[in-house]
Every structure is written in C-alpha cells, then in structure tokens.
Write a structure and sequence with these properties.
Strand order of the largest sheet: 1-18-17-19-23-22
Main location: secreted
Distance between the termini: 153 Å
Largest sheet: 6 strands, antiparallel
InterPro entries: GBD_Hemicentin/VWA7, HMCN1-like_VWA, Ig_VWA7, VWA7, VWA7_4, vWFA_dom_sf
Oligomer: single chain
Number of strands: 47
Number of helices: 10
Radius of gyration: 45 Å
Keywords: Glycoprotein, Secreted, Signal
Helix content: 10-25%
Strand content: 35-45%
Subcellular location: Secreted
GO cellular component, one term: extracellular region
Structural class: mainly beta
C-alpha cells in the first residue's frame, strides 16, 4: 500500500510512535488464554502479571497504558484499556478459565485484536497452553507486526500438555510451537516454553523488555543451528544490558574486550548472571561492563535465536519510502514488503543523548537475520538527525536495519539494530483510501496487484478487525511482469458509531504460495453530515423576578427560566442539553422529542444562564438570558394619625396611659410588593392588613412607657423603607390637666354635698 505523506510529516509521525519508549514509558498489552485447559495455569499467569504491574508502579518505567485482551474458543476479547495499574489488576482478577473444548485455541484472533487496538511500538505478551487454531491468520499477524512495529512475546505452558494433545489427535506442540517462534522472531520478541512452576521465572523477561528507552544492539537467528561467533559493540550510554538466547542443547561462551570469558553453565560469573527459563537463556551483564567489541560464540545444531538489548537514548527509527510527484512532491511511506531485486529508499531518524547533533552516523545497512549478507546504503544527510538511505538492492530473506555511529558525548562507537524483521517480495499490492465509510452503506475499495515475476492466478484474502461483512474476490489474474486491478466491498452495519476505526489487511499470494505481500489500511466510519443547522432555542417565560438589589441578600430569592428547544423537522435531533453559564439546576423533557422543554432554576446570586444544545451532527445552539433587578425603590410609609396622647410627665405612672399610631405603607405600582413589616423600635403591638394589598394599613399600640416607634417594611427586592415617630410627655400640673368630664363630675359632687348639709341643718 502507498500512503501519501511529505517527508516532514512521515518522520514526525514515526517519531511520535517509535520514539515513544524514550519520551515516555511504553504500552504493555497482556493477551491471556481463558479456556478450560488453562485452569491449572491461569492463576500463575495472573500472579506473574500482578508482579510485573507492581514492579513498575511509580517508577520511570511505569507503562503509560495497560491493555488486556482475553481469548477463548470461539470467542475472544473485549479489548480493555486503562492507565490505572490497579484497574488493570482488577480486570485480570476477574478472568476465569472455562470453555474451549479442543485444545487449539483462538490465540491469533486475540493477538490480532491487540495489534489493531494498541498503539504502534507496543509490547505484547501472550500467555497460553495451546497451539493456535486460527493458523490462517498468521500472515495477517505478520503484516500487522511489521506495520505497527510492535514486539510480541509468547509464554507457553505445556507441562504434560503435549502428550494430551497427541492423544487427542492434534498436531504435536513441538511442530506448531514454531508458529509462535516465527511471529516472535519477526517482531523482535521471544517465544518461551515453560512449565507452570517455571512461569514466574519469566517475569524478569517481561520486566526487561517493557522498560523505557529499550534498544536492540544485535539480533540473529540460525535454522538449522551451527557453530558461529557473533561480535557486537557496547557503548558508554547503554545500561541494563541483557542477552537472550532461545533454543535447545545450546552451549555458548561470552567474551568481553579484555578477553575475560564466561560460559552458559556459570550462573554467577565475572561478566554477569545466567538464568535459564524453559528454552531461554537470560544473561544479565554486570553493571561495570566494559565498552568496546564483545563476542559470543554459539554452538548448537538445533535452531536458535540471539538478541542483545539495553537501555539507551541513542536510537533510530526507519520507514521504507518512495518518491511521488505532484504539486507537493515528497516521499510516501510503503506499507508492505519492499520489492525484491529492486533499489529501495529508507527514511531514517536518529536520536542522541543530547539531541541529533550528539551522534555521528557512520553507515546504515540492511543485514540478514539468518545469514551473513550485509547491504550498505548511500547516506544523504537531510539535517536534524534525518537521513535518506538508498540501497541498490534489498537482501533476500528476513533482514533488519543496522546503524553504526559515534556517540559524541562519550566519544565511543555504537551499533543499533531495528527490532522488527522485514523481507522482500516480488508481489506488490497497493490501495489508496480517499474517503471514509458510512454506517449502513457498502464501501468499495479498489486495489492493484503487481508482480515482477511469473504471472498467474493470485489468491486474494482480506480481514478487518471489526468483523464487518466483506465481499472479496477469491483470486485475480496477473500477467507476468504486469498488474491487475480488483475491488472489495465492506458493509458497515447501520448501528456503527461515527468515529469507529477499522483496520483492514489485504493479502495477495502468488501461484503455488511461492510469494506474497500485504497492505494494511486504517479506515474510519463517519456518518455523513446533512444537518448543518444548529438547534433553535426560544425563551418561553421567566418567573416573577424578586432579586434583591443588595447582593448580600441574593441567596434568599430565586428565579426560573422556561425555554423550548428544537432541532427542526429535518434535523438529526438534540443529543445533549447543558448549561454553560449559571449556577443552578437544569431539567428537561426527553431529548428524543421534537420540542424539548427546559427549565432552569437559580438563586439571585446567579443572574445569567446560557443553555447549550448539541445535535447529533455536532451543531451547537445556545440560549443566553440575564435577569435584571428592576425594583430599586424602597417601600413608602405615611403616618395617618396619632391617637389623643395623655402620657404623664412622671415616668413612674407611664404604664397607665396608652397611645396609638396609624400608618399606610406601599411599594408603589411598579414595586415587587411588601414582603415583611415589623417594628424596630418601640415596645408594643403591631397589626396590619394583608401584605399583598397595594396599600398596607398598619396600627401600632403602646403604653406611655415606650414613646418611640420605627416601622420597617422590606419589599421582595430587599429594598427597606422605615417610618419613625415619637410621643412627647405632658409637662403641665395634674390639677390643671383635668379633663372636662372629670370637672363636671366634681362640680356635681360639690353641689350634692352642700344641699345635703342644708337639709341636715
């Protein structure tokens, strides 16, 4: 496949993926067999995973994300992602071993889900006790490994399981375990066979390989095995150097630049420690390692692999590219295998301990993993650590990229190798994705198959990670040295959410299965947008607003807004309704209705609200309203009358005399109305008519012991009006201050007394 990207975009994308182990910790993925045959092993697998998570928690090597993919038979998944290590431990704790039936399981289906769902350059660890039932996915898995540059390691427990499989008529585990070995080797990972009891010893392997800034110094494989000596450079920047050797009946001797040696049976030697886990030797070099040229002499007639790793910020990434013309010429990434027997170009980005300027690149070559062929390339320095490498031909067989240079910081030479293996093909398959897929509609994708070898009928197969229904031609006729076009159709279910990503792998196999190639495409499901009109909002009513002018009293008053919102008859419908401004409570009717009724309630401390309605096409409609304080005038008070006042001058006699004040109070025509009426001064009784009346009549009665009263009226806007009145005591002598009725009474009494005396005389 050809993906059109300019040089700068290509490199920036690659840097973000492949250098993420340097910038931050990597993503760790656990693919775990949960079939019934794992009942004896799953508890131990859980314990191993717990230990791995706990060992990295809170360290600089803590993964940025954990992913879990369980697989059974016939089901597999789901893919579970989290950045919280405790959540991942809880998810793993929920796994149980059950089901399955026959021992081959859907291992590669689970691995495919992991490769398509995890970011590029992830570290994937597969735990199983059985061979793969879905072996037809092998080439798809290889294509995804090469596309994502993720590392896959297998841990297969088989204490006695091989015999059980043979009794059931299933192919021996020794033969089918090669599938896992091939996939691990292609990705730069490990394939380890262990017993359940030895599985915990594999923990160190996972901890080693999932650290940040992990680099490959050397990677080789021999099948069949033979005696051979391999040399490799260790530079000053490398730490935690580990050598991994897989295979059976192997002997080896390790030698440092000073000539000191250590054999495989020396568990604790001068050069490091040797640990054996199943078919794996793990050699951890001592921290006081010497820089310079090391050697390891291997001796075995059985297949074996050799890998030397370490931690360093001196690293590189690469992509195969080809030029393209047009208004914006540049380089296009090639997804798939480069063409056999043809020149090729690579874009290589190098990172040093203090940036690209801190390394000097000497040469970049393609090196076969299983042989000794080295194809050097011509370097063009493009600046900022970027190099365009041109090779006259690409080696036959599996190969890696080898880079040699000098670390300017320490003045030591270094070597680095790519992790993922690549190989050539005489078949090329190209497809260009120029649009997105729509839910409920078939999507047709044309593709082209080319060959520079013998023509014939090329078998076509395709798979997608969403299991969408596809119509794929079984074969396509290609002439010798020619090309042919075909097309496949994917039907996206109507209920597929917009934004769903789909990974599609197309494979073309030459006649007789002599050669093949693949294209990996990333597709997106996007609902076609026909609704460009935002939801409409109409304020229906605002409740009586009694908000006080003084903010100090705002908590005691409330207001409510009612609004109708609609996306129209032809709209996609409102999917969410929230308030962006305003502190209050928002309620609404069912969003599925054509017209949604909303009510917002708030105190007068929050005078503004903005309702935000979003429809299914992501159009946004808003409703902004601000309530105002309109009543700023306090209630008015008018003293209507004061009763006849006969308050004695002597305060001692005050309690025997009384007075009364009558007053009218009003908040005016435009006021909010009187909410309360009290007296602040004066000891007496206050009565009044209904406060809801326009004019409230008040009467205050008090003894002459309380000569002053202050009435206070507060309206619903918290405006305050007062009425103050004082009585003056009577200052005249009591005998003069007699009232007329009393004087008449006294006169009658005197007349009656005189007449009686006269009669008596």
């Amino acid at each position: 496949m050809l993906t059109l990207l300019t040089l700068s975009i290509s490199l920036s994308l690659s840097l973000s993926h492949s250098f993420m182990g340097i910038a931050r910790s990597s993503v760790v993925v656990f693919v775990i067999d949960t079939t019934g045959s794992m009942s004896d092993d799953i508890l131990e697998a859980k314990r191993v995973v717990y230990e791995i998570i706990d060992s990295k928690k809170g360290t600089q090597d803590e993964p940025s994300q954990y992913i879990l993919v369980p697989f059974n038979d016939p089901k597999f998944g789901p893919l579970i992602k989290t950045t919280n290590p405790n959540v991942m431990k809880a998810e793993i704790a929920n796994l149980t071993a059950e089901g399955g039936g026959d021992l081959p399981e859907m291992c590669l289906s689970g691995l495919q889900l992991a490769l398509t769902g995890a970011p590029a350059s992830s570290y994937i660890y597969v735990f199983t006790d059985a061979v793969a039932k879905d072996i037809e996915l092998k080439e798809t898995i290889v294509a995804l490994i090469r596309s994502t540059k993720s590392t896959v390691s297998f841990f297969m427990t088989d204490d006695g399981a091989g015999a059980r499989r043979r009794r059931r008529g299933v192919e021996s585990s020794e033969a089918t375990f090669e599938t896992y070995k091939d996939l691990a080797l292609a990705s730069g990972g490990q394939a380890i066979r262990v017993t359940k009891e030895n599985l915990p010893q594999a923990t160190d392997v996972i901890i080693d390989s999932s650290t940040s800034a992990l680099v490959i110094v050397l990677q080789r494989a021999r099948n069949p095995g033979r005696a051979e000596t391999f040399s490799f450079l260790l530079d000053e920047s490398l730490n935690n150097i580990t050598i991994y050797i897989t295979g059976n009946t192997i002997t080896f001797t390790l030698k440092n630049p000073a000539g000191v040696t250590q054999k495989q049976n020396e568990v604790n030697g001068e050069l490091g420690t040797v640990q054996t886990v199943g078919n794996l030797f793990r050699v951890r070099l001592a921290s006081n390692k010497q820089t310079g040229l090391w050697e390891i002499s291997m001796n075995s007639n059985q297949p074996y692999t050799l890998k030397v790793t370490g931690q360093s910020t001196i690293a590189f990434i690469y992509d195969f590219v080809e030029t393209f013309e047009g208004p914006h010429p540049g380089y296009a990434l090639i997804s798939g295998r480069p063409q056999a027997g043809m020149p090729a170009m690579l874009l290589v980005s190098v990172l040093g301990r203090k940036g690209p300027a801190s390394v000097k690149v000497a040469d970049i070559a393609l090196v076969t993993v299983s042989g000794s062929e080295v194809v050097g390339g011509a370097l063009e320095d493009m600046g900022n650590g970027k190099f365009l490498v041109t090779v006259t031909k690409v080696p036959a067989g599996e190969f890696v990229v080898l880079l040699n240079g000098t670390d300017v910081v320490s003045s030591t030479v270094f070597q680095r190798q790519s992790t993922t293996q690549m190989s050539v093909s005489k078949v090329t398959i190209k497809a260009v994705v120029d649009r997105s897929m729509e839910p409920g509609k078939p999507f047709t994708l044309p593709f082209t198959v080319m060959t520079n070898a013998t023509g014939g009928s090329y078998k076509i197969s395709a798979r997608n990670d969403r299991d969408f229904k596809m119509n794929v031609p079984g074969s396509i006729a290609v002439t010798t040295g020619g090309n042919a076009t075909g097309e496949l159709t994917i039907t996206v279910p109507a209920n597929t959410p917009s934004g769903t990503d789909v990974t599609l792998t197309i494979e073309a196999v030459a006649p007789g299965a002599s050669d093949s190639n693949y294209a990996v495409l990333r597709l997106s499901v996007v609902t076609k947008v026909t609704d460009f009109t935002p939801p409409q909002c109409e304020v229906v009513s605002v409740s009586s607003v009694d908000c006080p002018a003084d903010p100090a009293f705002c908590n005691s008053a409330f207001w409510q807004l009612s609004a109708n919102l609609t996306d129209g008859v032809n709209g996609t419908g409102i999917t969410s309704l929230t308030h962006r401004q305003g502190v209050g409570s928002l309620t609404h009717t069912d969003l599925k209705q054509t017209v949604v009724a909303a009510a917002f309630n708030a105190s007068c401390c929050s005078l503004t609200v903005e309702l935000v309605a979003v429809d299914k096409a992501m159009n946004v409609g808003t409703c902004l309203y601000t309530t105002k304080v309109t009543d700023v005038t306090p209630p008015q008070c008018e003293v209507v009358s004061v009763s006849v006042v006969d308050c004695p001058a002597d305060p001692a006699a005050c309690s025997s005399a009384f007075w009364q004040l009558s007053a009218n109070l009003t908040d005016g025509v435009n006021g909010t109305g009187i909410a309360s009426l009290t007296h602040l001064q004066g000891i007496g009784s206050l009565t009044h008519t209904d406060l809801k009346q326009m004019v409230v009549a008040a009467a205050f009665n008090a003894s002459c012991c309380s000569l002053t009263v202050e009435l206070e009226a507060v309206d619903k806007a918290m405006n305050v009006g007062t009425c103050r009145f004082s009585i003056v005591r009577n200052a005249g002598p009591p005998s003069i201050a007699l009232s007329l009725p009393l004087l008449v009474c006294l006169l009658v009494s005197a007349f009656f007394t005189t007449s009686l005396r006269d009669l008596l005389i």
